[in-house]
């Protein structure tokens, strides 16, 4: 009986020990599972961290490239500004030169116009000297050609008392017979410039 009792006690202790071992095995299994989960989480975090580092490096490379491009653009902008300033100066100089040329052209045109007008006046003067225009004889239709009007004192000298013929009437010319002296030679007018025998 004592041996059975001891065997039962040993069996109870073994069951308790097995129960404790099973409980510890479960705890160990749970701990292993938790450790695996934490390792997976750590691995995932590590991958995320590596990815973040790579992205950071990529962003830094992009920022460096953008900085270099910005410097290039800034240099190009400075060059374009200088070229623009140079073009503006050249345009302003050309505009001033064009204005001066226009003013000089206008002055030269006015000078040539004055020279042409003076030359025309001189040509007309010389032409009048070389080819004078004869003045027409004064005609007094209402008075007749027998009345001579003096321009200096305004006095009128009457000619012979012969009625002036009308302008539109035909006047027959009278034939004048020469007057001869006793010898039969013609007598000339005293005011005539012709000499006898000429």
Description of the molecule:
The chain has 198 residues and is an all-alpha fold. 65% of the residues lie in helices and 2% in strands. It contains 1 helix and 2 strands; from the N terminus they run αββ. It has one helix at residues 2-130; strands at 148-149, 156-157. A hairpin with a 6-residue loop joins β1 and β2 (156-157).
**SSE-based structural type:** mainly alpha
Distance between the termini: 219 Å
Oligomeric state as shown: single chain
Strand order across the largest sheet = 1-2
Order of helices and strands: HEE
Major β-sheet, in short?
2 strands, antiparallel
The proportion of residues in beta strands is: under 5%
Number of helices: 1
**Shape, per Cα inertia axes:** rod-shaped
How helical, in percent, are the residues?
A: 55-70%
Average pLDDT:
77
Radius of gyration: 72 Å
Short description, anyone?
With 198 residues, the protein is mostly helical. The chain is built from 1 helix and 2 strands, in the order H-E-E.
Question: Which terms summarize this structure?
Answer:
198 residues; mainly alpha; 2 strands; 2% strand; rod-shaped
Summarize the helices and strands and which ones pair or pack:
Blueprint lengths: L1 H129 L17 E2 L6 E2 L41
